[in-house]
Amino acid sequence: MVWSLAVWFGSALLILAVLTQRWWDPWLAKSGVDWRAFPLRWYLLGFPATVIRIRWRWKQVCLINDLSISRKPTRMAVGDLAVRGTALRPIAPSLGLPRVTRTGLVVRVRLNPGQTPRPFLNATGALEHAWRVHRVRISSPRRGELIVTVTAQDSLSRGDAKADQQPDRFLAARVGRIEDGGAWVLDLREIPHWLLVGATQSGKSTLLAAWVVRLAPQRLALVGIDCKGGLELGLVESRLSALACNRPEAIELLRALVQEMQDRMAACRAARVRSIWQLPESERPVPIVVLVDELAELYLSDGSRESRDEVAQCATLLLRVAQLGAALGLHLVVAGQRVGSELGPGVTALRAQLGGRIAHRVNDEATAEMALGDLSPDAIAVAQTIEPDEKGVAVTTVGGRWMRARSDLTTPEQARTVADKHAHLTPHLPVLAHCMTGGGTSE
Ligand SMILES: Nc1ncnc2c1ncn2[C@@H]1O[C@H](COP(=O)(O)OP(=O)(O)OP(=O)(O)O)[C@@H](O)[C@H]1O
């Protein structure tokens, strides 16, 4: 009896709070109370309020945005009117039961016969406005069915201190947040090679810096190829086992890496194993993560024979590292503004080997398509909606799906400080001796 009274009272209070939210919400904000930061706020209030709003406005939103069909009149129709004055009635697609998630909800929509997902994809802005949510994403896993994913608030702009403190697994790096509020973890054991594209000032170098900062304390070698004169990767030079700052140096470095791969291959063959991960730990060579900033610098040619030769060598060597590296502990992280076939045929082959994809804001659809095309057409559309002021925001692969994510802002000073702090962990690889930057510990 007491319990049922409490449940009734609680439910009534909840409904009242939901219905009056538009009055007390601005008042609380003005008084400086950030109720959105309360951990259970979304489950207790946000979710019920959003569900009510979605159900309440569904038919109206569908009607305004041409997402309904008209009921076929049972009697003969003349123009837009049915005989006997029966007006044609719009029928909205049927909305399923919403399922709550950590930062929003997911709801299934069954389309009326003849409806396609396209008008719904075009209407996401209207749905966000009508439901007062941060983001609405629509995918269509099956014909006649939509999955509508609603994100209540912009979780990419808020910090997550707990995730920040979590130590990284070996070869994994927590570089930011994904839009469902979780940690954005780039794991080189799971996906050995990554491609990172984005227009200038979209956040590529900051993401690379965040990546280096998280990898720096681990027992691995970092190697840099930065043909923009080493301006970006030079910041973390103290933690790099080698750094190439122009194309001839890059070729020398890549040759040394291919040599290292061959040595590792021989060691695996001798031990009759298929990868360095099957070697006993004491004999296992350190993994090498090769960071390439601005891929185009390796592929652009001025037409002279010398530069064409250099480009061909870079293309072949990079491709070899990408093709054979994963099992031998060599990982590629390649960043660039464009990765299209206009840079040469080698780029297309290389791109196919880079399984992990990250697309920051891009200037054109073609670049988004090159980076994300094999993921999903929806991901391409979303990459193009990243605004210039959304620095560090990207669309990426997470567990076989795509998601929006944002890197942690890592300043050049932070990157330099962390690199200096862990400089003593920099392994000295004999094969890279002639490409060495500063000193390193002997491996
Ligand atoms: N996650 C982030 N949060 C906030 N600001 C960011 C983030 N990532 C990048 N920025 C800001 O965006 C600006 C451009 O970043 P960055 O230099 O990484 O871009 P880029 O793509 O490497 O540019 P370029 O190709 O010109 O080198 C910088 O001022 C940086 O501080």
UniProtKB/TrEMBL annotation:
Entries under InterPro entries matching the protein: FtsK/SpoIIIE/SftA, FtsK_dom, P-loop_NTPase
Per UniProt, where does ATP bind?
Answer: G198, A199, T200, Q201, S202, G203, K204, S205
In the record, what terms sit under GO molecular function? ATP binding; DNA binding
One biological-process term from Gene Ontology?
cell division
Q: Report the Pfam families cross-referenced here.
A: FtsK_SpoIIIE
Does the entry feature the keyword RNA-binding, yes or no?
Answer: no
Q: Which UniProt keywords apply?
A: ATP-binding, Cell cycle, Cell division, Nucleotide-binding
Looking at the record's lineage, which domain of life comes first?
A: Bacteria
Q: Give yes or no: UniProt keyword Zinc-finger.
A: no
Which residue range or ranges hold the FtsK domain?
181-369
Q: Please identify the protein, giving its name as recorded.
A: Cell division protein FtsK
